[in-house]
Design a protein that fits this description.
heterotrimer; A mainly alpha (about 280); B mainly alpha (about 280); C alpha+beta (about 375); B: about 280 residues; two-stranded antiparallel ribbon; 13 helices; C: about 375 residues; alpha+beta; 6-stranded mixed beta sheet; about 35% strand
Chain lengths: ~280, ~280, ~375
Amino acid sequence: MIRTLPNSRAYTWSFHVFVILYFVFLFAPLLVTCVLAFNDSNFPSLPWNGGTLDWFFSPGPQRVGIFHDAQNLRSILVSFQTAVIVSVLCVVVGTCAAFAFEQETFPFKNLLYFLMLAPLVIPGVILGISQLLGATTAGMFFETHFDLDIAIFRPSFWLVVLGQFSFITTFVALVVSARLRKFDRSLEEAALNLGATRFQVIRFITLRFLRPAIIGAGAVAFLMSFENFNTTLFLVGSQPTLPINLYLQVRDGSTPVINAISFLLIVGTSCLALVNLYFSRKEA
Amino acid sequence: MKTSRLSLWIFLSPVLMWLVLLIVLPHLDLFIMSFRAKDEYGRMGFSLQNYVHFFEEPIYWLTFVRTAVYSVITTFFTFLLAMPVAFYIVKVVRPKYKGFLMVLLLLPFWVSELVRVYGWMILLRESGVVNFFLLKLGIVDAPLKMLYTDATMIMGLVYTSMLFMVVPVISVLESLDDSLIEAASDLGGSKISIWREIILPHCKPGITSGAIVVFMLSLGNYLTPNLMGGKNSLWFTEQIYNQFIASFNWNQGAAFGFLLLLLSSGIIWAGLKLSRVKLGEVAS
Amino acid sequence: MEIDLSVKNCVKSFGSFLAVDDVTFDVPQGSFFSILGPSGCGKTTLLRMVAGFEEPTSGTIMIRGRDMRGVLPNRRPANLVFQHLALFPMMTVAENIAFGLRRRKVAAPERKRRTEDILERVGLPGYGGKRVDQLSGGQKQRVAIARCLVLEPLVLLLDEPLGALDLKLREQMKVELKKLQAKVGTTFVYITHDQSEALVMSDVVAVMNKGRFEQMGSPQDLYHAPETPFVARFVGENNVWAGRVEKVGEVVAIKTDEGFVFSAKSQSPLTVGDRADLFLRPEAMRIEPREPAGLNTFSVSVRAILFDGAASRLLTATDSGHELMVALPQNRRFDHIAPGQTITVGWHPESGVCFPAVNPAAAADAGGARP
């Protein structure tokens, strides 16, 4: 049953085998994707024709490696810019939300808290279309009343930022709140007692305590933004992000360049994940 | 602790802006837009036409029902797979492997959903890796059609949402004292009765929050059904996408979006009521 | 008398570590048997082997003459009351108690009758409908015991169940547990690191250290005639002198390192010139004895009065600074004693026990584990 009870050999071994199969299931698609990025073939499939780095470095014209593929490189850059801006915005507003909901009292607090949790249960596609509708309505409002044409209300880079910000902030707020709840408020009281102002207290005591949670939440926000598809799909303008760009390529047929990009993504996110995990372990 | 009003406003104003401008107003707009349509003279006005249209066209409401049913099936299979894995990691495996297995378990989910789906595509399609081996080993004579079927799509959805079931179940299992299982065994309990009367009742809150998140994610998923399911737009999010991007009928799309939102909140509400768990607990 | 639990040459090793080292004992039917030892001495492992959660590496465990090897915990006629009780929080009190009966497919009316009956017997009539978290610590205790007793086990195993209670309740539960055992007549095997629990409740106590039984006997035997230095240190309070043996025989003479010469009895063979430790209970020392003939007498100075009602003691020191505890009877005869005074104490050679000296590390082990 459990490790402290006597178990039959058959029970334990069938459990081991089950979990091994589960992990094979979990990693098979990722491993295959990575391996086929190095296959010397024009299609991401077997048989194995020997290794090559063409899909990373080849300058063309037959094979264009990822590092010479202007379109994909541009989308990576767009995704990167989006993710940086979104994660900074989310961390700032999410931390404010954590402070507001954990430490302050104000009317309609429960209603607002419920609203803050709402993005967790709204499907991403719906967040996308409502952002699109809301922005368009706002754009029309400004155009008819003030005769202003504001670009960010049309599908564009900034609308993507706003759309992703609208739900990733919730995750940041939850992570920071959880850490803030563990904070011993008598430390703040002690600092106030020693003559610090409220903002000095927050800057020197509370924020320092929250730092690991804020960094972790920032990393998660970065990744969520970088990889977001459902919401971005409806808001993207002339600058597609990497997931959108990849989706369009995957839908229309695939080349090992996609494997090469996937390989870089897998390696990159795994490193980020391990670093984040390491820091969260240290915190705990 | 008594705090100043100034700090409250500094924290609360960005949060209010976020919640009002990016959550409340866009969804109100979605709601309003769904009740607007052109009348026979081509003027926009209040109308129930978008909803009438939904019920009159079987393709729409059938897709809606199909999406809901398949999401329930996905949630169920995710639970069936996640429960033993979580139990193994928390209660069966030797503690020294636990941390390593946790890292291994979480790692794939940091990688973009698109990459994971792409991995399944190159594994399962007719020229894919699995068929290559099946042919090579002489198990089949002609490649099997595995991609673009409902079963594969459900497997893809299970794979994608696995994490959101495993993590909450692991955290409730962590809080289950081993001595409860030992006591039940000592009092004569068989494996089945221990599962039914001790483990599952204890895990109910974690299973509920996992099931809610998995259900919602499947319902709102676009990528997996689009890339792994059949080609004829049989997931409801695809219908929404078509209305918005292909037919450019935003009002119809808004009505669909609102219906999907209603379905997901309805099922979440029912899930919370049945299991007596609060939304805040699900979030944490 | 029938033997309910019989353990023979039981050994349990984890890798190279011997948790239980060749333990043998019999528990007669209807008795209260305690295993007393510091944490890590192997008593929990021993109990878990009897319950069936661990298999012995070698040796046999028999319950009412039946060999338990290979019998799963849920098939053994022995039930365990867990250290933290392990009441099922998802069930009511009655459901907790009926859990085992349901597993045995006892019919519903019979189940209900037996549940109510056992609740009555542990003094919780009408508590069946309550949730576990509505109970107090002592009530939870009784439900945990009732949950096992309802199955009418031959042996009830208890794993320090009083450990989580506060002091006052623990004192009360000791008495209650003893009374309950006498009433139901089930054989109890109780493990604890608290010597007072073991002494108050048990018919027989086994003192366990480093996987072995040091001594097994009635609480009085353990207290008055410890057979090993470990038992002398672990059970009750003792003053210790280190010294050298001067004379052997019926009564040994020992010269302590500070120069006193005492006569005392010896538990193990000593030869003249050996290093030895002398153990003496605080209450064996009489303050200002009226008839000092035949007693070992010496004088000490009073450092402090440790007033604790009936357990009051004097903290005293000899001229060379060796601290000794002396019992202070509360019969008003010694009210005049004040810190700083010098008093004479005397003790009968029968009350002091000598053992060959042990190395200081082992002594520290035993001393550190004393609660």
